[in-house]
């Protein structure tokens, strides 16, 4: 399928120019859509991560503020008048602990704290039977210095049971298996995370006599975590169908959260579920924050985690804030669908306008091509009137005028030639003794007539070709300029996916220019006469092989050289190189036709010898050969049997050699191969007799 499309495009200038216009549109539009997708995805995702990072900061401040509130409540109680009076009685000259114990009971009854006790300077309980097993020396030292301290502390199940058995039952939490989490060896979490506050009790002289200590369990304290959620995810902070959540972890276990077990059952909290392994390793193991998407229980959330540090500086848990990812992704994909539809509409509109605009340009070119083919085949057709009135239409009209003049000139030349032949025949009959000379003159006359007719045709084609070249070179120059601008506007990463297609466009434009150049060189050969200089034919052969050696190797064609000529001849190396490359390329094509089923059997032989006052070159192949019926026409202009050829290669080569007095001949046998003989004189002797005869006739 692709091969058929390529053949269709390469067979017509119309399809090539149309492809050059449409390829940038069809390639750049998907590229722009892809870049828009990547850019918008990156920007949107970055904004979501910035938001969740801000949410975590708000949750962190609320987490710290709650601890300070507990300390403030404890401070207000300790500084109240009834408590100070009871403390003076407890630590006065006659110690009496009953009033102070009563104050502690009243503070416990207010349910501000889950437990309250009074300890001495050594950390032992003064009003109960806890002994000295619950002292937290770092907090006592900080409270002594800062007049109060608060922090997060980890209480084992035995510690909570000694304080109050109900607290140990409250923190007991079965662990539930969770996807993406680290498998657990234990079945339940029985430790407690406590907001622990210390406040020093001083006597009248200001000396610290004891410490008032109170704690609040974080485990299962839903009022606390829901308050954090209201602060972080207030009304209007998220999409309408999104869900914001806050969680407190003890280790990697959720001990307090408003994350639902399933979205379909929001009343069931995911207590006892585990955090994913990736988050566990980064936050708990390495002590780093996690700001990224994460799998939370059963859904993907845009998540932020940070470690919770206890009073000893240990990482004992995590604080989490996050919201559902799915609503934001749905909004994002909806916007992308609208963007893709818009780009598709613009692309279809651009392609439609390009095709319609191209038709008006191609119609005159196709008409001229059709007429040129008919004239070349011997017909006498004209383009006629066209609907458009642009430059190409004017060029088509001028072509009709040129063809009319050419036809008139041809008829006049034919009449003059007929009359001249009659006169020559009469003189030949009268001058029998000069029969041989007159016969040669007659042959020369016929040749001159052919040259004259050919020159008249070349003149007309030259004017036509110059106009076509001007009109085609202008859009090709615009295409090349815009391609350079397009590649310059794209950066290296953006240009790389379309680099091969861009190079193909430039390559095809240069091919158009090469075709026009060959037409000009054939129709106006005198404009392309090059300066002649001494040259070594063998060296020109070697330089030419550099250009085709890769193609020969690719097609497994052997090259055999036998270069023995050492004579220096006068000519133009570039034009001789053009002749050699054309002959070698023709030989390669013939070998491919003959030996397409026998790769590696093709062979090309190039031989050079000194011959008289010049050098003889032989280019021989074992290709398909040339039929005897078409052998006399191979040097005719526009005659070709190869698909995609212009029919100018051998004709231009023949003209190059003729202008420097050289010769080119061919011997060929169908099925066995062809041999081309190129003779280059040491000193070019350009025969001027034909020009003199033309001047006499005119």
Description of the structure:
It is a single chain. The protein has helices at about 1-10, 15-80, 80-90, 100-110, 135-145, 155-165, 165-170, 220-230, 275-285, 325-375, 390-430, 435-490, 490-495, 500-525, 535-555, 575-595, 650-660, 690-695, and strands at about 115-120, 150-155, 175, 190, 190-200, 210-215, 245-250, 255, 260, 265-270, 290-295, 300-310, 315-325, 535, 560-565, 570, 605-610, 615-620, 665-670, 675-680. The protein is α+β, with helices and mostly antiparallel strands. The strands form six sheets. The chain has a five-stranded antiparallel beta sheet with strand order 8-7-13-12-11. A five-stranded mixed beta sheet has the order 15-17-18-20-19, with helices on one face. Strands 1-6-5-2 form a four-stranded antiparallel beta sheet, with helices on both faces. α2 (about 15-80) runs antiparallel to α10 (about 325-375), α2 runs antiparallel to α14 (about 500-525) and α11 (about 390-430) runs antiparallel to α12 (about 435-490). Mean pLDDT is about 80; it is low at about 685-698.
Decide which structural class fits the backbone: alpha+beta
Percent in helix? 40-55%
* General form: rod-shaped
Going by CATH, what is the homologous superfamily of the largest domain?
PAS domain
List the domain count as a whole number. 3
CATH class of the largest domain: Alpha Beta
CATH architectural grouping of the largest domain: 2-Layer Sandwich
Per DSSP, what share of the residues sits in E-state strands of 2 or more residues? 15-25%
> Termini, distance in Å?
57 Å
